[in-house]
Fold:
Amino acid sequence: MPRPAATEDVFRAVADPTRRAALEILGRRRDVPVTALAEELGVGLPMLSRHLAVLRSAGLVAERRDGRMRRYRIQPEPLRELYDWAAIFREFWPEKIDNLRSYLDRVAKDET
Structure:
């Protein structure tokens, strides 16, 4: 089965915890002024600008100017690629959990 396509930009964008937190905020609040986003994340505007540039280049956020204010909203479509890629591993975990459960049952039985 071929691996679903997921761009390196999307992986790189979500690899950073600050960028993931920004995506979570934008996912909850939809349209957020950059100053409010910086305050909620606890980062300065220059640092946030660098993170937002990465997110914009991956197509994960869109910027809208409202006078002098910049507002951001999430563009979740590229995250679908990441979700589809990660779905490959869905089958992996139930089997591992079942194996662990069997092992623990055997250990518990041996101790009695």
